[in-house]
Specification:
The structure holds 2 protein chains of 2 kinds. By secondary structure, chain A is an all-alpha fold. Chain A is 70% helix and 0% strand. The chains are: A mainly alpha, B alpha/beta.
Chain lengths: 280, 314
């Protein structure tokens, strides 16, 4: 009778080339979130504004009495405002624990002892959030545009508003990247996802609140740059070629604040995502 | 059977004037050393710089000064070499809600394994550490010994040439210790190179005779363990044994000649022995027989080793 080797058999199969490890982090995170029923419920709920808008487009296209509801370029910009509350909750739900949970489980040291660079780790983590946020911003907005065209049965609206394709894409990405990097940076600062969620909510509401008070006192929107939300809304209006929402703040300042926020978040991630915490 | 080996004459780790400091504190101080292929014990009291040295050789820390090469390649910011190294860190690093199999499969995918192969590799690694039956259970339900073994499994799962094990026996029960020591020796026999840190000479001696002694961030000595054996034996060895019935444990220990003193605590016995080899051997038998109830965590403070090092540096 042949005796089979019972020892450790070495892997002889295919190995992905180095540099692809971020996809492993991303796919594991996406699958983990997609397996949560409550989260899927939230994702579905986030498509409610899309449904309402789609019905509206249908009514406008089929019933002349509803022409008062006809969509404009502004409607697409407003669609992002409707989605803001869902973006907020998804950002907190998915993003708060992305790095904090790894830190709490001491997993970073083991992760980074594998052929995985810190940049790949961060890219993988950011991708998880980016995917879910694009699912509730860019995807429904683009689908709306397609539905709009189909219900109307002509390309006249699209031809008149060709800017909408790049505008939706650009603003979605700016919005999603700002939310993703901000919450990820906060997530790298703590071991507790709850604390990160509070920090993120605080950063959004506190900066908005402070600006609101200053606006009430001064009557000027010159200090809108201190609010994260205001900067984003200002950039959104410019991207959609609308009037600036805060006329006393140059839109360039708002854009700089958004870019600066992403840059600061990346800097924090660079310093905080380490296999070994070094306390000098 | 093919095997990843590093048994050629080339050292697996080479450090040249390697230093690492954390602000004002020196972790590693101008270390120049070559670690040969095979099993090598890294011995030193707590704070000697063992973990820092291991973190430097696994690319977790950047040297403040000097050079470190692993398997002939610079290791800092060189993830390609990480696939040839397996690290078992000293701290617990788990997602308690994942099963052992899930955790291992997820980790090995970072080494480029596809999903199906990752599951196979996880099963093989669990077999290698005698943990197949518990593979489907949540890590949160594992005992300390099982957690250490699943940590060892993640270090060996991708078939590395060099295994770096930081205090792999810490907190294990006697049977788990014996099993892990056997595993380490077996991996060494298979041709892998291993660097194992500990502050307990007895543990290292059971795995290998080749040791590096570290103290205050420097390599104090390197070579054969037997050369410092006598020095160690001059100092009583303290062992902390946790058990469900410390009184029965104490009674069993008292009968032995080499036991110099006993201190009874609520859940443990602290023993001072003149012959740690004999003591650990008897302790394993006692745990296996169950005569003195279940024997849990076994730890040893490094006071005795500290005394030897103080003697050596005089």
């Amino acid at each position: 009778m042949p005796i089979h080797d019972q020892g450790y058999r070495h892997y002889g199969g295919h190995r992905e080339a180095p540099g692809r490890a971020w996809t492993v982090i991303a796919s594991a995170g996406i699958r983990s979130m997609a397996g949560k029923r409550k989260f899927l419920g939230l994702l579905l709920l986030a498509w409610l504004p899309f449904l309402v808008e789609a019905i509206r487009f249908y009514l406008v296209a089929n019933f002349p009495q509803a022409s008062i509801l006809a969509a404009t370029r502004e409607s697409y910009r407003e669609f992002f405002d409707y989605q803001a509350v869902f973006v907020f909750f998804i950002t907190i739900w998915v993003g708060a624990g992305l790095i904090a949970n790894d830190k709490r489980a001491n997993a970073l040291q083991i992760y980074l002892s594998k052929p995985l660079t810190r940049a790949e780790y961060v890219a993988g983590k950011v991708s998880i959030l980016v995917v879910f946020l694009l699912l509730v911003t860019w995807v429904p907005a683009m689908l709306l545009l397609v539905l709009h065209m189909l219900f109307q049965g002509s390309l006249s609206f699209i031809r008149a508003n060709l800017v909408l394709f790049p505008a939706i894409t650009l603003f979605s990405f700016v919005y999603v990247l700002l939310a993703s990097f901000t919450v990820l940076a906060l997530s790298s600062l703590s071991n507790s996802s709850r604390f990160v969620a509070i920090l993120y909510a605080g950063a959004i509401f506190f900066s908005d609140g402070v600006y609101g008070v200053l606006y009430a006192v001064t009557g000027s929107s010159a200090l809108s740059w201190i609010s994260l939300g205001a900067n984003l809304r200002q950039v959104g209006n410019i991207v959609f070629r609308m009037k600036p929402l805060y006329p006393d703040t140059p839109w360039q300042v708002s854009l700089l604040m958004v870019i600066g926020m992403i840059a600061v978040s990346m800097l924090i991630l660079d310093r905080r995502v380490r296999g070994v915490e070094v306390v000098s | 059977m093919t095997m990843a080996t590093s048994t050629d004459a080339r050292p697996v780790v080479e450090a040249e004037h390697l230093s690492k400091w954390y602000g004002q504190v020196i972790g590693i101080n101008d270390v120049t050393v070559s670690v040969p292929a095979g099993v090598t014990g890294l011995l030193g009291p707590n704070g000697a710089g063992k973990s820092t040295f291991m973190k430097l050789m696994t690319g977790q820390l950047k040297p403040s000064q000097g050079v470190i090469r692993v398997l002939g390649e610079p290791v800092w910011r060189n993830p390609a070499v990480f696939s040839r190294i397996g690290l078992c860190p000293d701290q617990d690093s788990f997602y308690d809600r994942m099963s052992g199999t899930e955790w291992l499969a997820a980790l090995v995918r970072l080494n480029g394994y596809d999903e199906r192969r990752a599951d196979e590799a996880a099963r093989r690694a669990l077999e290698a550490v005698d943990l197949v039956e518990a593979g489907g259970k949540k890590i949160g339900s594992y005992s300390k010994g099982m957690r250490q073994r699943v940590k060892l499994a993640q270090a060996v799962i991708h078939d590395p040439e060099l295994l770096v094990l930081d205090e792999p026996l810490a907190g294990m029960d006697p049977i788990g210790r014996r099993r892990t020591i056997r595993l380490i020796r077996e991996w060494g026999r298979q041709g892998k190179s291993l660097l194992v840190s500990s502050h307990i000479l007895h543990e290292i001696e059971a795995m290998t005779s080749s040791i590096l002694l570290m103290h205050n961030g420097r390599i104090l000595a390197e070579g054969d363990v037997h050369q410092i054996r006598e020095l160690i034996d001059e100092h009583p060895h303290t062992v902390y044994v946790k058990g469900e019935d410390p009184r029965r444990l104490a009674r069993a220990f008292l009968a032995e000649e080499d036991v110099l003193s006993l201190q009874l605590e609520q859940e443990a016995v602290i023993v001072q022995t003149a012959r740690p080899d004999a003591f650990y051997s008897r302790l394993t038998e006692l745990a296996a027989s169950g005569e003195a109830g279940a024997v849990g965590e076994v730890t040893s403070p490094d006071d005795n080793l500290q005394a030897v090092f103080q003697y050596l540096v005089k």
